[in-house]
Design a protein that fits this description.
The complex is a heterodimer of chains A (90) and B (89). Chain A is 84% helix and 0% strand. Chain A has helices at 2-29, 37-58, 62-87. In chain A, helix 1 runs antiparallel to helix 2 (37-58) and helix 2 packs antiparallel against helix 3. Chain B has one domain. The longest helix of chain B has 26 residues, at 31-56. Chain B is built from three helices and no strands. Chain B has helices at 3-26, 31-56, 60-84. Classes of the chains: A mainly alpha (90), B mainly alpha (89). At the A-B interface, helix 1, helix 2 and helix 3 of A face helix 1, helix 2 and helix 3 of B.
């Protein structure tokens, strides 16, 4: 029975690694001269955040994962909001 | 080496690549890009530290990871408020 849980944990960690690699590729993919590219990068940041939350849950850190799960939407919204009212309006 | 440790090493390598990509984004000229890069870097480093704690049994890595997970988004929110500007409310 333990072997099944170990295999499931390993599969989830590998899935997290795949998503993190996709996010690393995606965050560098767009050129800087593209208009409002920051929103796309905030979106890609959410993918990596979700993968890291999944990895933290699998590795037995539910408090860290829960805290980050609550905090990170506020941070992403604050970045997009600050960009919209700050740099984008200039 | 069992399959769980192997997958942890693979995740650590993926997170190292993501941390480098985040650092590259953080060095772009606008403040918003810096915030995106540092936000990605903080969670990547925190997850790497948790993996290091799992593999090598270094206990204080969890304390640093906790500080990064809690203070990273808080700092991002604070800096984004500055980016937005005080006059707009």
């Amino acid at each position: 029975m333990d072997d099944i849980f170990t295999i499931i944990k390993a599969a989830l960690l590998l899935a997290s690694a795949v998503f993190v690699l996709l996010a690393a590729f995606g965050i560098l993919r767009f050129k800087d001269d593209l208009e409002r590219v920051l929103y796309a990068r905030v979106h890609i940041l959410g993918v990596a955040d979700g993968a890291c939350i999944l990895a933290l849950l699998v590795m037995g850190e539910p408090l860290l994962a829960g805290a980050y799960f609550i905090l990170v939407p506020f941070a992403s919204h604050a970045i997009a909001n600050g960009f919209y009212y700050g740099e984008d309006k200039q | 080496m069992d399959i769980l440790t192997l997958s942890e090493y693979i995740l650590m390598a993926a997170l190292a690549i993501y941390a480098l990509a985040s650092m590259r984004i953080a060095t772009r000229k606008t403040i918003g890009m810096g915030l995106v890069g540092v936000g990605g870097l903080s969670i990547a480093v925190a997850t790497i530290l948790i993996i290091v704690q799992n593999i090598y049994g270094i206990a204080f890595c969890k304390d640093i990871a906790t500080a990064l997970v809690l203070l990273g988004p808080v700092g991002t929110i604070a800096f984004a408020r500055v980016l937005r500007g005080y006059s707009n409310g």
